[in-house]
Amino acid sequence: MDESKTRAERIALKTRRKQRMVRVAMGQEKADLVLKNATYVNVFSEELCRGDIAVVGGLVVGMGEYSGLQEVDVSGRIVAPGFLDAHIHLESSLVSPYSFARAVVPHGTTTVITDPHEIANVCGVGGIDYMMSASEGLPVDVHFMLPSCVPAMPFDENGERLTWRDINAYFDHPRVLGLAEMMNYPGIISGDRTTIEKIVVSQAHHKKIDGHAPGLSGHALDAYISAGVYSDHECDSFENALEKLRKGQFIMIREGTAAQNLEALMPLLTPRYASRCMFCTDDKHPYDLLHRGHIDAIVRKAIRLGADPILTIKVASHNAARYFLLNNKGAIAPGYLADFAVLDDLERVNVQMVFKRGVCVYDGRTVQAREPEIDPDILSVVSDTFHLPELTPSRLRAGETMPLMGLIPKSIVTRNLGTASGVNPAEDILKLVVCERHHSTGHVGVCYVKGYGLKRGAIAASIAHDSHNIIACGVTDEDICAAVNRIRALRGGITVADGGQVVAELPLPVGGLFTNEPLEKVNEQLENCKRRAYDMGVTEGVDPFMTMSFTSLCVIPSLRLTTQGVFDVDGLTFL
Amino acid sequence: MDESKTRAERIALKTRRKQRMVRVAMGQEKADLVLKNATYVNVFSEELCRGDIAVVGGLVVGMGEYSGLQEVDVSGRIVAPGFLDAHIHLESSLVSPYSFARAVVPHGTTTVITDPHEIANVCGVGGIDYMMSASEGLPVDVHFMLPSCVPAMPFDENGERLTWRDINAYFDHPRVLGLAEMMNYPGIISGDRTTIEKIVVSQAHHKKIDGHAPGLSGHALDAYISAGVYSDHECDSFENALEKLRKGQFIMIREGTAAQNLEALMPLLTPRYASRCMFCTDDKHPYDLLHRGHIDAIVRKAIRLGADPILTIKVASHNAARYFLLNNKGAIAPGYLADFAVLDDLERVNVQMVFKRGVCVYDGRTVQAREPEIDPDILSVVSDTFHLPELTPSRLRAGETMPLMGLIPKSIVTRNLGTASGVNPAEDILKLVVCERHHSTGHVGVCYVKGYGLKRGAIAASIAHDSHNIIACGVTDEDICAAVNRIRALRGGITVADGGQVVAELPLPVGGLFTNEPLEKVNEQLENCKRRAYDMGVTEGVDPFMTMSFTSLCVIPSLRLTTQGVFDVDGLTFL
């Protein structure tokens, strides 16, 4: 509502809007839009219903026989409520919210709930401010869960630290729905005060708290849920999901680029359990978004695996809306937002048209989206995030004996392989480097890595979970420096160096994490970088950038490289 | 939370509480209470689960193996979440919230959502203040929906009128959940501004709006729901309920004293529809409460009629909690309130023990309840509601020709029988009188009535929907005056007069609607009054007080008697 109006004026305005809705619903006035001859998914009675759908002021007002100023005949198709992604880090798409929205609207997505965890690790609340500004007025509603674990570990050298006092100011924003995935479950179950405080603050605002507790079970799970964690998206077996569901958590069935749990969790997509479930992607990378889709891809896969189509669409739309108390979303009924995905049928589930608040934003060819204007002060915060000296080979500890980290194909878990005394491409022993880039500390962590496969040159990225320092892996110190220094010059990106030259790159100027370019262009540049990386020897089954980006995340076993050296996750010590 | 504390202090306090919950859940400390060897209803997975239930600070923290400072062995029994009544007018029990709570705790009720519509018609916001004070700290949580239609009709001479500005101040009270049954559906669908404003205000506070729209269908139902009405408790056929459910309303299946819809709505108690349904009683009279029960009686009846017991208990507990966003109620799981009904089994559904916030409030014999202290200023408002002159026979228009209202046994609908010219007990033509009692206007409405059956004397009551003036029906003007004047002296009640003397009475000193006496005593007095009334000739199938009390409610066809004369509901005019 317009803040310049008095309360009484706002009530009068809303009352006039309602009066118009009533007149249209009664058939006394024409609707703004009518979808004629619709066959639509009724999530309440779990069936297909038929009728014209009348829309006024962006809201559905009636189903039956209606006429409208604009009429769209949808006979022969299926109208579903627009899809919701219950948990995503938009940064993982490598594009801005604007480019993301343009990419997912054709897949029927009309709402996403994002956790701006990555950019908050770089820019703190400035990153949250940016994401909020950059997601205003898009054809996809972007709601926020506030990052709960920034930094991921207390010793991490990230850009900013967020306490409950930092996030507290954001709970009153109308698009903030709660506290994002509470990854620090060891903190919760050990009763850590500063961790539990964040939950208490979110509850004091009557907001949701999402969970992240892979494999947690028994008393520890009871303790974690008791503390106030209402959902989980880390279930990879039906047994673990069922335990969490029985103890009251909502289950977000995750199908992202890195982790895909739908197949294991198919027994949840049955009448007994489905009302406690929703879909999420967590992380979606450009190629995957472009070529497989978004929530629609999960719907297709679930139906292919045998789930009931109506139930599946309800899980994809209504259930997340109910969980997040988005009470006018996720259904086609009077009073609900006119967010629709028009599908060809319930087998192929191809999205043919998309309506957002009663406006056609995708007609099978073009996507309607206006780019948000962002305050220059906010923009400058996310555009100036590289503060580090130029990297020189002297910092890279040539020839020293250092720990050796072992990569495992198709996994982000690593092994402790003891030590090595130098790079040896013949034995696949390479140098791994993490350069602190937020506060010009000059800290550089170095170790050896086995399993990456590179035979020459170096690869670097400013995406390195969760602190997003610059990470690089290479054969020669010269190429490592070239790759890292190019990222410094670009103020973010992914680079491939060979023979002392950068031979491929993807600039990521927003926080060093993503760009405002269209997804298609980003995908092309990224695929080019990947091709170069594989040409230079990177092992099949290892994603040259994604696998590397997780080698600095100190919550996954066994060894991790930080700006301060190698951390042994099993022993919780620096080596 | 304690208002005297700073925000930071409150967060610190809640954090310490959570830390204790975590320690108990982890098994590191003893719980306050453990229900040992429980078989409990899991509303999430819709099954019976087994384990000890650990409780700390009134909240469940874990299910499994636990030990506690207090342990109660519940082996062989079924632990269900406490029951919720989704819609009731507490005044209809004829007792105060304290006496009501004592009466329903043994039936497993732990939460009711009340609409203080009756007392608001008498005392306005003073009546709401009283109900809030009088329901503090009871073993049954009393939540409020704010009366939406006071008075019922614009011309009604009730005690106070409530505009949106009057109710607006109450939305911030933690026990206020929204706007109560919007009975004025003609106002909504005709776009009446002052009616729609109340919905807009409730929505601005993110609150619920309950409906009341018997038989509404098609475009008119779309319009009513579009305006923002989320539920209905007036469905008496599966077809009407299904139309409302399909259009997004939650269905409250009503089983009260006057209206019983469960049998007709049994098809809703199936997996496809049950998640959109809950139970309510609307009105429960003393005899019915004492001898049949409360929500437990609905559960028993549903199971007897073939509903699945687990699903039925979920409808009786979890679903209303979810609808009203009482997110820590209606389930047995970590973080939920320890509100339990311990049942003998799932066939007989006899309540054997009841726990409220982890305290045993009913052990099969005694009920634990502390009487709330009520501010004398608030008490004086509801104790001084009779402002009318003494009634004399000269006001009763002896021998005049006046309209004749026809009663129908077992119905509150009346017929227009033309006119009569005098009382004639032989032909069952009696005098019906309504005396304005709020503002000393001296208005007295008089007409004749057929079908009541009284052969001598008179009967009077200060319960007369919805304005609650004094209503009386009698053979002689002398007895009518005696019965009415005794109510005036008692400051509220029900009276039976015979031969110029009051021969039976039930004092109702709170707003003229109810009393603070125990339900058993009230029931005894009321049954005594009824016996007298039947002895004096009242027709079988007519409730001497309830049937009479509805003859003044101008929203039910055909004739109604007001303080200003006979109103023709069909023609919307005074005769």
Q: What is the arithmetic mean of pLDDT of chain A? A: 96
- Seen as an oligomer or otherwise, the chain set is homodimer
Measured as a percent range, the helix fraction of chain A is 25-40%
Annotation, overall tally of beta strands of chain A: 27
Which chain pair shows the most residues in contact?
Answer: A-B, 61 and 61 residues
Low-confidence stretches of chain A: none
Indicate the proportion of strand residues of chain A.
25-35%
Continuous helix count of chain A: 18
Shape of chain A: globular
Distance between the termini of chain A: 55 Å
Helix vs. strand class of chain A? alpha/beta
| Major sheet characteristics of chain A | 8 strands, mixed
Overall radius of gyration of chain A: 25 Å
Short summary:
2 copies of one chain form a homodimer. With 575 residues, chain A is α/β, with parallel strands linked by helices.
